[in-house]
Each structure stands twice: as structure tokens, then as C-alpha cells.
Design brief:
Elements: E1 6-14, H1 20-39, E2 50-58, E3 68-69, H2 77-86, H3 99-107, E4 131-137, H4 156-165, E5 168-174, H5 178-183, E6 190-193, H6 201-210, H7 212-231
Parallel strand pairs: 1-2, 1-4, 4-5, 5-6
Antiparallel strand pairs: 2-3
Helix pairs in contact: 1-2, 1-6, 1-7, 3-4
């Protein structure tokens, strides 16, 4: 039997200095995502009644001491908003950040056992019991070589392998850099290219997230896409 309408969602957010407006826009509009997700939509995306969300911030694993800001899975919008409010966008500049390291950590996060009676807010649910979605927001490129101890020296291919092995569905909101094109080749991944004529990647994401009407539409589309993923959970 397939579990439908169940999803564990991680918002994996670049928290370097230029990301403050994006984080703020997410905090202000996250209800739009949650409401669309739990209600379904007119294009008959089935509602996801049973969702958990968590917010994780990342910076540069080589240069920032607390480069990975983790939070537990929660089940309500207020708690998710609080996690977003807790993110501090600082440092980082516009040089490459450690997205691959962060993705590796998230993809290899422990999961609860099949048929477990209780949930663990620090773990994924068992893979056939909930769709696993990771939503990335960033305005920078990423470092190509992993430095986290569990995958030191690894590459994008190692990340792609654990993302697929652990049935992660990736949704990227990122600039038009070649690396994101390669990440988006991973099975079931989606990439929304954030770019505007004449704007830097940092300015582009700020513009993309600052228009409330457009950004809410984006979040509704994201919710529809998560709903679709949650309809057919991989066994």
C-alpha cells in the first residue's frame, strides 16, 4: 500500500549575508505554501494533510564555525515561521557556499524504522511512509569538493548518489550557474533559474522574493509540486 499525501519537507537555505531579504520573504509568506499544501489546489494536486517541515541554514563549511544551522521537524506554520525567524543571514559574501556538504548531511540524515509507532523530530520518516522533499534557496554558487568528515573529498556525484539512494526530491531556487544545471539532472529534481537581465545573482533573488504577489504564486506552485511528489511515494 502506498502512503499518499504525506511529506517531510526541508527548507535548506543559504544564510550568507545577502540572503536576509529572501529569508524575510519566506517568513512572511510561508503560510501561503502551507495552506496550498494542506488544501490541495484546483489542478487536483491531492492535499498533503500530513506534513512536517524544518528549516536548515548553511554557509561555508570551511570558514564559518557554525555553518550548519539545524532545527527539528515541526507540524505547524507558527513553529516553521519561528525557525525562519531564527536564521541569521551574515558573512559569506558572494563566494561559493557549502551547499553540497549541506545536501549530503540532509540526504544521509537518519530515518525512523519502517512502521515505527512514534516519530522523531530529528529524523526522516521511513522512505515509503513519507515523500522527502528538500527545497533550496540560494544566491551563490557552491564549492565542488566536500569537506564534511563523513564525505571528505567527495564531489557532486557523491551527493547525487545519496540524494537518489535516500529518495530525496530536490527543488532548487538558484542562479544560472552550471553547477545547478548538473544538480537538476538528478532524478525528480526541479530547478527554478533565478535571473534577471543586468542584475547580479544576489540582486536577482532579492527581486524574485520581494514582489509578494509573484512570490506567493511561486510558493503555491512549489506546494503543488510537493503535493504531486507526495502522491506517489517511492517504496
Amino acid at each position: 500500500a502506498k502512503t499518499r499525501g504525506v511529506a517531510d519537507i526541508v527548507f535548506l537555505i543559504d544564510v550568507s549575508g545577502s540572503m536576509a531579504p529572501c529569508i524575510d520573504a519566506l517568513r512572511k509568506n510561508i503560510e501561503v505554501f502551507i495552506d496550498s499544501l494542506s488544501a490541495g489546489d484546483a489542478n487536483n494536486a491531492a492535499p498533503v494533510k500530513d506534513w512536517r517541515g524544518r528549516v536548515i541554514g548553511y554557509r561555508d563549511a570551511e570558514h564559518d564555525r557554525d555553518w550548519f544551522q539545524d532545527h527539528p521537524f515541526v507540524r505547524d506554520g507558527v513553529a516553521l515561521k519561528a525557525q525562519l525567524a531564527n536564521l541569521r543571514a551574515e558573512g559569506g559574501g558572494d563566494e561559493p557556499e557549502s551547499l553540497l556538504d549541506a545536501l549530503y548531511k540532509v540526504a544521509t540524515m537518519e530515518a525512523t524504522a519502517k512502521g515505527a509507532q512514534s516519530e522523531d523530530p530529528s529524523r526522516w520518516r521511513y522512505r515509503s511512509e513519507a515523500a522527502r522533499v528538500v527545497v533550496v534557496f540560494t544566491d551563490a554558487s557552491f564549492k565542488e569538493t566536500l569537506v564534511v568528515p563523513e564525505a571528505k573529498g567527495g564531489s557532486l556525484q557523491d551527493v547525487a548518489n545519496v540524494v537518489m539512494a535516500n529518495r530525496i526530491i530536490l527543488s532548487l531556487f538558484a542562479p544560472n550557474f552550471e553547477g545547478y544545471d548538473r544538480l537538476s539532472q538528478i532524478d525528480k529534481s526541479e530547478w527554478e533559474v533565478v535571473e534577471y537581465e543586468g542584475l547580479s545573482p544576489q540582486e536577482a533573488l532579492q527581486k524574485f522574493t520581494s514582489d509578494p504577489v509573484n512570490f506567493r504564486t511561486t510558493l503555491k506552485q512549489l506546494a503543488a509540486s510537493v503535493s504531486k511528489s507526495a502522491e506517489t511515494v517511492a517504496l
